[in-house]
Each structure stands twice: as structure tokens, then as C-alpha cells.
Amino acid sequence: MTNFQQILELGQQVQARLAQLQSELGQKTVSCSSGGGMVTATADGRGQLKAIKIDPSVVHAADVEMLEDLVVAAVSEVQSRAQQMYEEEMRKLSGGMPMPFPMPGL
User: Fold this and answer.
1) Rounded to whole angstroms, how far apart are CA atoms 53 and 85?
2) How far apart are CA 50 and CA 42, in angstroms?
């Protein structure tokens, strides 16, 4: 019975740490740019897009398609980096052991 109680306690500790991690990731930010800094996207550590900054010099009616491509590139990169940040934090949490399943909400 003691082993079962220890497993339950460990599960509660992991659950509390995951909640703390989710909160911490929500406070961290990552920024990426494309087009040599013409478009910058910022996301939180959970990959939620928080801001887009566009250099006014690229806002031309004839260049709308290029601007759209730069925005997509910056957003894709920032989401990828946010995912890397999440995975790094999960590795720290699990002591380097792979998690057996993806954690929802993170």
C-alpha cells in the first residue's frame, strides 16, 4: 500500500510542477524575425502569438504578397522556437526521461 501512496504523491507533485511550468511558459516570450528584421513575431512559451511588428518601409501596395510571406515566415519560426522552449522545459521536468504521452494544454 505504501508504494501506491508514493505513486499518488509523485503524481500530485508532477501535476503541480506541470501547472507551474505552464504558468512560467505563459510568462516567457520568444521573438523571431524575417526579411532581415522587416517583420518580427513574438509568442509566449506556449506558442501563442502575442505581437507582430512590421517595418513601415515594407508596407507598399505592390509588395503585399511579399509582406504576407514575411509574416508567415516569422510566425512559423517563432512557433517552432516556442515548441523548442517547451520541449526543453519538459526535459528538465522529467529529468531527461521521455514523457510517455503528450501533456494537454502545454
Assistant:
1) 22
2) 5
The whole-angstrom distance between residue 24's C-alpha and the CA centroid of its chain comes to: 11
Domains and their CATH numbers in the chain: 33-94 (3.30.1310.10)
DSSP letter at 56 equals G
Per-residue model confidence as pLDDT tens digits over 11-39: 788 888 888 888 888 888 889 988 899 88
The CA–CA distances, whole Å, from 44 to 2, 19, 58 equal 40, 16, 25
pLDDT < 50 positions in the chain: 106
CB 26 within 8 A of CB 45: yes
CB 36 within 8 A of CB 70: no
